[in-house]
Each structure stands twice: as structure tokens, then as C-alpha cells.
Amino acid sequence: MSKPVFNRQLERLVTGVATQDGAGVSLVRVLTHDLQHRLDPFLMLDNFHSDKPEDYLAGFPDHPHRGFETVTYMLAGRMRHRDNAGNEGLLQAGGVQWMTAGSGLVHSELPEQEDGLMSGFQLWLNLASGDKMIAPSYRDLQADDIPQVSPQPGVKVKVIAGSAFGTAGAVQRPHTEPLYLDLQLAGGQQLDLPIPASHNAFLYVFEGELRIGEDGRSAPSGRMAILSNTADAAGVSVQAQGNSRFLLIAGRPLNEPIAQWGPFVMNTREQVEQAMRDFQDGKF
Ligand code: FE
């Protein structure tokens, strides 16, 4: 058997868009609407990071979702979640909330702090057409619930979803088989990072700088690097320029139509209109 080749390349570097969402939370939308097909099954990635209370205090008061999953990963700060099924949870540093909106729910996400740093990510993961109307559910995972692995000295990997280096992550999902890793590399470390060849994949660097692939193209902090879909590639080879930290997010594309209106993501316009009616009629 020939040696696996980690030859995915940096296809495109993306700078996020500064915007506001919720009741006025300042954030950077890293994965924007125009990338939904290229990065299928992922619909959105937001990065919130601020120590100015006016950037986050308004939070996300009651709002609906239908047809997909939201994955919130907290790096710093505290956020209280409540939904209309009576569920409640506190998202804290190092923790993850994996929420399946499915057929629909109404929830709020509100900061539980008046000052200090609030930092983290919210990813939207699409559901397959046959799963869009499943019962809503969510899991609150604390920092200790996220398995960690060190495949070599100077490399630490938190396995949020999927599996990496022989370690199963906290969450496994059917159909899209998402891989969601938080990786820390000491300066100079080189890592061959396995990614299923079937998956669309991207990195988001939030500390330091990475050199990606054979040509060593640079992905600095605050940039998303879309990785090429290279047939038979075992993954990507990265090298850290100084101590670096980044997310790897990858998933098997659904290749289904995407019909979105705000917090409703379905397959057809009729289904989205039905979602609006159901929400207005209080059926969530
Ligand atoms: Fe939400």
C-alpha cells in the first residue's frame, strides 16, 4: 500500500464580514451565504470576540429555527440558553452546545456576564431533507466532555465532532459526518491532518499563522482557508508559524437544494413559507 498523501491545498482565503445579529451583537460572519454550496453541509460560521460589553450585552432574545443544527463553541464568557420546550443551559468557556432545531423551536441566547471577554463561534450545520422535521433536541457539553488527544509533542487537539487520531469526538452525526476540531500547534510544528476525501473542508485560524500544503501558502489569524477537494487526498499538511490555534471543520456534502429565509433553512420555497406560517401560528 502506498503512503497516504496529505495534499489538500489552500484553495481560497476568506476574510469574514463584520456585522450585527440578534438584538445588536457585533460579530464576524466568516462563512457567508455565498459559500453555502461550496461548503455544503455548512450554512454559516460566526465568530464573536469582544471585551466591550456593548458588543454583546443585547444577546439573542427569543427567535425561531427550523431545518438545521446550531453548534455553539465558547472560548470565553458565559451565555444562558432557554427554549420554549423548557430546556435551559449555561454555555461556558470550553463548552459546546449542539442544538438540533429540526421541526422548530424558539430560543434565546443571552450573555450571563456584564463585562469581560465573550469569545466563541456559532456554526450552522444543515440537516438532510429527511431529517429536517425531526424532533428538536440539544446537548450541552462542558469543557471536560470534549475529548482531547495529543498525536505528537507540541500538538493538542480537542475533538468536538467526528474522530481524529484514533479519538472519537463528543458528537457524531449521520449523513454529513461532521468533523469539528480545535487544534493548537506550538510554533514550527508540522502536522498531517487526516480529513475524509468525501468532505468539504475549511480551517479558521484564530491565533498565530499557518502554512498550508506543499506550496506553503499562508493563512493568518482571522482568516478562513477553504481547502481544495483533492481526489484521494488523505488530508492536509499544515505548519505553524509561531504558536497557533485553529478550527478544522469538514463535512460530507448533502447536495440538496437550499432554501433559506433567515432562521429557516429548508429545501424548497414552499417549505420555508410553511415554516413562517407555522411559526406565526405558534406551532413551534
Ligand atoms: Fe439561535
SSE layout:
Elements: E1 10-15, E2 17-21, E3 25-31, E4 42-50, H1 53-56, E5 60-65, E6 68-76, E7 78-83, E8 88-92, E9 96-100, E10 105-111, E11 118-126, E12 137-141, E13 148-149, E14 155-161, E15 163-164, E16 167-168, E17 179-185, E18 190-194, E19 200-207, E20 209-212, E21 217-220, E22 223-227, E23 235-240, E24 244-251, E25 259-261, E26 264-266, H2 269-280
Antiparallel strand pairs: 1-22, 2-3, 3-4, 4-11, 5-10, 6-9, 6-11, 7-8, 7-10, 9-12, 13-14, 14-17, 15-16, 17-24, 18-23, 19-22, 19-24, 20-21, 20-23, 25-26
The structure holds fe (iii) ion.
Describe the structure.
- This protein is mostly beta strands.
- The protein has 2 domains: 16-145 and 273-284, Jelly Rolls, CATH 2.60.120; 147-253, Jelly Rolls, CATH 2.60.120.10.
- The chain is built from 2 helices and 26 strands.
- It has helices spanning 53-56, 269-280, and strands at residues 10-15, 17-21, 25-31, 42-50, 60-65, 68-76, 78-83, 88-92, 96-100, 105-111, 118-126, 137-141, 148-149, 155-161, 163-164, 167-168, 179-185, 190-194, 200-207, 209-212, 217-220, 223-227, 235-240, 244-251, 259-261, 264-266.
- The strands form 6 sheets. It has a 7-stranded antiparallel beta sheet with strand order 1-22-19-24-17-14-13, with no helix packed on it. Strands 2-3-4-11-6-9-12 form a 7-stranded antiparallel beta sheet.
- β2 and β3 form a beta hairpin.
- The relative contact order is 0.20.
- The mean pLDDT is 96.
- It binds fe (iii) ion.
- Fe (iii) ion binds at residues 60, 63, 65, 70, 107, 109.
